[in-house]
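Please, structure for the following, as tokens.
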Amino acid sequence: MAPAPGRLLHVTDGYALAHDFGHTWAAVEGIHLRAEDVAGVLAEVRAALTGSGAARCSWWLTERSTPPDLEARLLEAGLVRDDADYLHAAMLLTTEPPQVDGIAVRRVTTLAEFAEGRRLALAAFANPNQHVPTDDEIAVEWQHAVDPTFAAWVDGRMAAVGRATFTSMGAYLIGGATAEWARGRGAYRAIVRARWDAAVEANTPALGVGAGPMSRPILERLGFEQVLQLRRLDDVLSPA
């Protein structure tokens, strides 16, 4: 992930913090800390996000994270664990996924499309902790958007959306969601393929993703392989 206008990106030897302007979620990844540094880094991350608009910061732990008792330390410091959204698979695809015929898919190009996609994703995830943005807040997100959003249409209706963050090694998939009425019709697979094509065009033919229990079976059928187990803890910075 590269620095960009509208993105807070802070990378150290011990962790990486990323937050996009206008969004309410931030992420801490690649965590390799000494036990005596955990409290200080937590305070550092919280200070960095002050005034950013982030309501929650997700800390993504893996079997490689240090210290070994990092999860216990973070929970003791006030982070929370939602068992329904705790385990995710870090997955990688380096071979071409199948083409999906009969579905129109492309990058969204207007505020109206972007807003429709945001509403679709909010309804698909139905997360009670997710802030529901106003029309004005969505307009601000669109104005400062760093990553492209792709959408698929089935029978003329927007059926699925997904973002991609492009890096020097490939594209990282974010926020893939399908409307309930369109599930099982290939829309999710179509936006995966669209983001693969974009990664190939950028000369970085690889896709990475943190997959939850709903998307993981689909991604496995497309050829994604798990490389790490992700465990998610949330630091609640302000009420949703």
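Helices lie at 38-49, 70-76, 111-125, 135-143, 187-201, 216-221. Residues 111-125 form the longest helix (15 residues).
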